[in-house]
Amino acid sequence: MPELPEVETVRRGLATRGLGRVEAVLWLDPRMVRGPVPGEEIARRLLHQEARGAERYGKFLVWRFASGDGLLLHLGMSGRLEVGVAPDVPWAPHTHLVVLLTDGFEVRLRDPRRFGRIGWVVGPPALRVGPDPLAPDFTARRLAQLVAGRRRAIKAVLLDQASLGGVGNIYADEALWRARIHPATPAGALDERQVARLHRALRAVLREAIASGGTSFRDYVDALGRPGRFAGRLKVYGRRGSRCARCRGRIETMHLAGRTTHFCRACQRPAEAGDRPVVMSTEG
Ligand SMILES: [Zn+2]
C-alpha cells in the first residue's frame, strides 16, 4: 500500500504534469466514489476546471483547481495515478477515470483492487488525519505529546492515521529499527531519548524514501510510471531471516496491530521491567 513517500512522489508528479484546463472527462467506473457527490456530478464539475497543483494529507491527495475545489484521491492498496499520458496510449485494464487536459495529455486513475477512493472537496478536505511527520512544526516535543500516557504499542500509534498522517507498515518498521525501539513498547513508556531518536529516524527514513521515489513491491509506480528505488535500502521490512545491518542479529517478524511487524530482537529490545517513563521536558 502506498505510504507517505509514495503518495508524496505521486503528488509531485501530479503537481508538475497535471496542470492546465480540463477538456474532457471520462468515467469508466464511478463505483470508487465516496462521499455525497456522485461520480457523474464529479465529472460535470471537473469539466473546464483549471488545475493548479496538488496537496497531500497523510496518504490522501487533493488535485486542486483554481476555483478552490479539488478532486480527493486515495490510492488504496493498488491505485495508480498516471499523468502526462498521450491519448493514443490504450487504456490499461482497471482504468476508472480519464481526464484530458489542454496540454493534450491525460491523467488516468486505475485501481485493480478498487480499495481506492475518489471524492469532491471544496476547500480543505475534512479528513481525520493527524499531523504530518515531515511538517516543519512536527518537533520531537510534538511526538512526545502524541505518545504521552498511551498504553498502545508504539507501532500501533505510528500506524494510526488520526494520530500521525501517512506512516504505514513499511516506514513504521524502518523508523523503529533505526531508533532501536521494540515495536511492542507501550508508546507512553518511551523515554525522552527514545522519543528524540524516533523523531529523527521517522523524518530521515521518510525523506530518504521520497528522494528514492518510494518503495515498490507489487503495484506502486509514480505518476510517470516509474517504480520506487527505496526497496534495496530497507533494513527490516521484508527481510525476515536476514542479518541485521547493525548488529548481525536475525530479523524476525511478529504480529502486531494487525500487521506483520519486522524487527531485530537483539538491538530493539523490549523495555525492561521497572523502566520508568521519563516526562519530556525540553523544547524542540
Ligand atoms: Zn540488530
On the 0 to 100 scale, the average pLDDT is 92
Number of domains: 2
Secondary-structure arrangement, i.e. CATH architecture of the largest domain? Orthogonal Bundle
Strand order of the largest sheet: 5-7-6-1-2-3-4-8
What are the secondary-structure elements, in order, as H or E?
A: HEHEEEEEEEHHHHEE
Main β-sheet, in a few words?
Answer: 8 strands, antiparallel
> Which ligands appear in the coordinates?
zinc ion
Describe this structure in words.
By secondary structure, this protein is α+β, with helices and mostly antiparallel strands. The protein has 2 domains: 4-122, N-terminal domain of MutM-like DNA repair proteins (Alpha-Beta Barrel), CATH 3.20.190; 140-264, Helicase, Ruva Protein, domain 3 (Orthogonal Bundle). It has 6 helices and 10 strands; from the N terminus they run αβαβββββββααααββ. It has helices at residues 4-17, 39-46, 140-147, 154-159, 169-178, 192-211; strands at residues 20-27, 50-57, 60-65, 69-74, 80-85, 95-101, 106-110, 117-122, 251-256, 259-264. The strands form 2 sheets. The protein has an 8-stranded antiparallel β-sheet. Strand 3 (60-65) and strand 4 form a beta hairpin. Helix 5 packs across helix 6. Mean pLDDT is 92; it is low at 277-284. Bound molecules: zinc ion. Residues 244, 246-247, 249, 264, 266-267 line the site of zinc ion. Zinc ion binds at residues 244, 246-247, 249, 264, 266-267.
